[in-house]
Task: inverse folding
C-alpha cells in the first residue's frame, strides 16, 4: 500500500476519521486502534510477516520489563544481549544470509574448491531494518539509563509497528515516540494544515521528479556500454536527484501523516545537497539512521579506540560507514559504498577538521564562491559513491566510472531534456530559498497571501495529476 496510491487514500481517510472522532475518547482505545491499523497496513504487503513483527515486539517488551525489574547490571546486560542477538540475528538471516553464502562459496572457488552450498529461498520482510533498529534503541536506552521501559504493551507494540514510519523510516527512538503514545493527543488545526503542505511537497518530489527520472536513470545504467560519457555523467546526476526526491519525498509524507495523527516524527533530511563537506552531508542525509549509528556504534567505538588517537578515530569512522553501507543492502557494492564515504573523511581526520562546521548564512540569497565550491565538491564526491549505489555490481560500477573518462565526455548528452533540467533547477532553487524551514512549504500562510498560496497549491496538484511518472516503489522499501 503505497502512500501515493488509491488504496492508501481510502485506508487513511477512514482511519483518520475513526481515529479522531470515534476512538479518541480513551487513550488506550485510540492506541489499540492505531496498532490494529498499523497491522492492517503491514499485512497489505504480506500477512505472513506480521507474525515476525509481533514476535519482535513481544520479545523486546518482555526484555525491557525484566531489565527494569532487576537491579543486577550483569543480568541487564544479558537481557540486552539476548534482544540484540535476536534482532540482529533475524536481520542477518533474512537480509544477509544469501550474501554471506555466496561470498563464502566464491572465496573458496578462487582456490578451486567447490563447495556444494546453495542459497536460501528467502523473501525480505518489508521494514525489518527499520523496526529492528527501533527496538534495539529501546533496549540500549534502558540499559544505559536513558529511559524507563513502558508498562503499556499497547503503546510499545504501536511504537514498533507505527505505520507512517514502518516501511521506510524515519527511525524514531523509543524515548521520543513512546512518551507521545502514553499521553493524550489533541487535534491541532494549524499543525494539520502544515502537515498537509508537507505531504503535498512529498507527493510532488516523489511523483513528479523521482518517478519521471527513474526510467531514464535505469535505462542509462542498463545501456552504459553504448552511451557517451556525457550521458553517463548526466545519469549519475539524475540518480542523485532521483534518490533524494524519492526518499525525502517519502519522509515528508511519513512525517506529515504522523503529524496528522498528533505525533512529532523525527526529521530525516535537512537539505543535504547544500552541505559543504561529507560529514555535514551525512548529518543532513537520512538523519535518523546516521544519528542511530553514531550514538550506538561510532560513539562507543571512538571511546574504546581513543588511546590510538587519529588512528582510533579513523578505525571507528570506517566501521561506522561500513555498517551504514551494509545497512543499505546485502551486496559488496554497498559495503564499498559505505567504505568510500568513510575514506572521504580520512583527510579531515588527519587535519583535525572533521568536526568543523561551515554554516551558511540564513539571510544570504546566494552562496559565496567559497561556499558554492565546497557544496559542488561535496556533491561530486557523493555522486561518485552513488554510482556504486545505483549499479548492479561492483564490476559494473567500476566499468561505468571508467567509461566517464573518454572523449565522448564532450558530446551532447542523450536524455538531456530541457523540461527535466528546468524542473530540477527550479526545485533546487526553491529548496535553497527555503533551506531554513522544516520543509519547503512551511509557513506559507505567513509568507504569501491566500490567493497566491492557493494558486501554488493548485499548481502542485495539477503538476502531480498531469506530469506524474510511472508508479515506482519507494527505493528504500528494499532496505
Result:
Amino acid at each position: 500500500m503505497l502512500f501515493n496510491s488509491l488504496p492508501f487514500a481510502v485506508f487513511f481517510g477512514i482511519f483518520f476519521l475513526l481515529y479522531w472522532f470515534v476512538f479518541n475518547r480513551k487513550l488506550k482505545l485510540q492506541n489499540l486502534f492505531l496498532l490494529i491499523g498499523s497491522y492492517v497496513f503491514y499485512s497489505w504487503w504480506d500477512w505472513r510477516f506480521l507474525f515476525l513483527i509481533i514476535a519482535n515486539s513481544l520479545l523486546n517488551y518482555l526484555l525491557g520489563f525484566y531489565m527494569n525489574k532487576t537491579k543486577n547490571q550483569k543480568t541487564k546486560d544479558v537481557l540486552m544481549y539476548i534482544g540484540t542477538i535476536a534482532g540482529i540475528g533475524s536481520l542477518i538471516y533474512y537480509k544477509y544470509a544469501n550474501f554471506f553464502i555466496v561470498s563464502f562459496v566464491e572465496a573458496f572457488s578462487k582456490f578451486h574448491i567447490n563447495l556444494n552450498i546453495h542459497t536460501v529461498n528467502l523473501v525480505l520482510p518489508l521494514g525489518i531494518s527499520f523496526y529492528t533498529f527501533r527496538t534495539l534503541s529501546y533496549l540500549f536506552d534502558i540499559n544505559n539509563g536513558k529511559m524507563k521501559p513502558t508498562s503499556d504493551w499497547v503503546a510499545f507494540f504501536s511504537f514498533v509497528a507505527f505505520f507512517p514510519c514502518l516501511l521506510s523510516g524515519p527511525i524514531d527512538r523509543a524515548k521520543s515516540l513512546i512518551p507521545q503514545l502514553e499521553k493524550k493527543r489533541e487535534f491541532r488545526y494549524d499543525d494539520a494544515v502544515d502537515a498537509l503542505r508537507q505531504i503535498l511537497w512529498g507527493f510532488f518530489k516523489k511523483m513528479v521528479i523521482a518517478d519521471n527520472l527513474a526510467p531514464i536513470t535505469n535505462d542509462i545504467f542498463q545501456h552504459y556500454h553504448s552511451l557517451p560519457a556525457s550521458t553517463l555523467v548526466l545519469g549519475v546526476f539524475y540518480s542523485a536527484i532521483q534518490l533524494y526526491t524519492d526518499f525525502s519525498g517519502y519522509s515528508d509524507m511519513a512525517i506529515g501523516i504522523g503529524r496528522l495523527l498528533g505525533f512529532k516524527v523525527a526529521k530525516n533530511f535537512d537539505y543535504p545537497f547544500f552541505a559543504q563537506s561529507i560529514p555535514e552531508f551525512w548529518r543532513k542525509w537520512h538523519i535518523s539512521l546516521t544519528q542511530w549509528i553514531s550514538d550506538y556504534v561510532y560513539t562507543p567505538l571512538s571511546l574504546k579506540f581513543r588511546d590510538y588517537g587519529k588512528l582510533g578515530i579513523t578505525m571507528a569512522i570506517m566501521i561506522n560507514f561500513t555498517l551504514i553501507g551494509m545497512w543499505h543492502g546485502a551486496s559488496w557494492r554497498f559495503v564499498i559504498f559505505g567504505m568510500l564515504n568513510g575514506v572521504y573523511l580520512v583527510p579531515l581526520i588527519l587535519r583535525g577538521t572533521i568536526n568543523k562546521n561551515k554554516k551558511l548564512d540564513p539571510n544570504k540569497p546566494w552562496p559565496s564562491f567559497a561556499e558554492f565550491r565546497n557544496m559542488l565538491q561535496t556533491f561530486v564526491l557523493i555522486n561518485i559513491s552513488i554510482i556504486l549505489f545505483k549499479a548492479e555490481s561492483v564490476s559494473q560500477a567500476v566499468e561505468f566510472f571508467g567509461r566517464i573518462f573518454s572523449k565522448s565526455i564532450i558530446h551532447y548528452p542523450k536524455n538531456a531534456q530541457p523540461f527535466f533540467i528546468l524542473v530540477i533547477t527550479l526545485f533546487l532553487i526553491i529548496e535553497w530559498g527555503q533551506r531554513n524551514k522544516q520543509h519547503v512549504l512551511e509557513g506559507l500562510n505567513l509568507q504569501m497571501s491566500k490567493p497566491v498560496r492557493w494558486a501554488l497549491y493548485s499548481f502542485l496538484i495539477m503538476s502531480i495529476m498531469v506530469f506524474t511518472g510511472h508508479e515506482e516503489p519507494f527505493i528504500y522499501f528494499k532496505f
In short: The chain has two domains: 6-185, 190-276+358-478. The chain has a mean pLDDT of 92. The two ends are 17 Å apart (CA to CA).
